[in-house]
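thought: fold this chain, then report.
action: predict
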Amino acid sequence: MPKTEDATGSVPGPRGGRAEARRAAQGKGGASAAAGGGRAAARKSAKPKKNVKKIVAWSTAGVLVVIAGVGGAIYFKLNANIKSFDADAIARNRPPEAQADADGNKPVNVLLIGSDSRGKNNSDLGGGEDGGARSDTTILLHVYADHKHAVGISIPRNAKVELPSCKLPNGKWTKGGNVDLFNAAFSMGGSDDGNPACTQNTVEKLTGIRVDHTMVVDFNGFAAMTSAVNGVDICLPQPIYEGDINPKLPKKGALVLPQGKQTVDGQKALDYVRLRHGIGDGSDIGRMKRQQAFLSSLAGKIKKEGMNPTTLLPLADAATKSLVVDPGLDSADKLLSFGLSLKNIDMHDLKFVTAPWRYRTQDKDLDLVQPDANKLWETLKADQTIDGQNATGQQPDAAPTGGASPAPQQPAPATTPAAPAGDAGNSAIRVAVYNGTLVNGLAGKATEQLKGAKFIASTAGQAASTKYKTTTIEYGSGQKANAEKVAELFPGAGLEPSGARGISVIVGQDFAAAAGMASGAPAGGAAPSAAPGVPAPPQPLPTTITNEARSADDDICANTSFGSGG
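observation:
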């Protein structure tokens, strides 16, 4: 497929050799670094020696709902822990805020940054002593207005982007407009605390999306979180040794993480999320996939165990000590409110994708692919899920605009089956579902129906045509019998052999009618025009984005590497 690219417990000390390698790789630029000018050169000389990638513990805010059940002393302690960055460092020329609808529904965009700052005790965990901070992990989390769906977009650290004007620690602003690595924004000014406002400004310029909140978590916060939840489940396709974690070691070294499913916390959790070598092609893309799997597993565990104060109060204390937020989240009350806003998101409706990318021909860095990246940003702005559902939170009108009474709801035809239990053999059949109409969410509904019958189904996005009147099931060589099983869920569907591998379902207007969903196209097949003042719906996302999406409830052993060798 084409690349649209390309606290309580003690924590063990660092693994040998990493500190020396980082010190050898470091370049400090004195006054020029403070102005941002000498930093790029230092990074270039350092890049071959870097072997560190951190995770952003986005659910820190979510666990702070325990504040609601604790006494005033603990509340004020947590309040005192929280640090925020300077509001004056946020750009003045920003994308507009999302507007709430009549019911008060409004999306929230949260920038999640994993910092590898070596200040305080972080050098013990990170295995290095050099100063400064980098944002090797950055995720833009879009919480939809219905607050039942969310998607996290991983932004590659070495993607080339245009940096805006940013405020430095000395109070001066950079000129902006130069092209550099994305993670150069967080390093702007060379401070051990990093420059989260510059990263926020860069994301807003890159996406055209207003960032409502920014959260930065360092090593201490991450290690405390994994320990406070008694570890996080992960899965590795092969064993990992000390030489994989630190390629500067002259030998393979001892086993660090065995092959298969396991539970990790503290140092081993850090080893997993920053692991690059020894799996797949050793790229940052594979590392981001594992980080997405880790975050999914962490979120699922917290959701399953609930907000238990006995478990989570130590986490709230330790995590807030390692948390830096924007001024809009600078108190326990504000974090509580934000955390509560996430409680109704189902794990299946929490998705992770990577901004579309490709390798550059002139160096080893990345470019974001256009127009695919812009389609992704526009999809978020429109509050459409990546599988085409409307998640604005708005309900359909009670009556048509002509003033006539609405037609009575017709029951679904008797030939439309409820999702059957399915036989055991269905669990080995993979099905990709496409929307062959203009009805929002139709492919997602068909996907859920297939999953209810125990098929392995995924929503692949929009079909090449939106004029399918009848649902069509395409199947590759040797898949006819399996396709017939799938067809039992879609009475009247056509079966067609295909040169492609596997089985695809293209749902048509017949399925929309059977599901009681209004047709999205008027007679003649033309797309409906948007109402005055309402933006046109975004273009369908390419399958190279949708096919790579991870749901938080996906198998933790799936989709955790990239390229050959994994």
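thought: worth noting. The radius of gyration is 25 Å.
final: tokens above.
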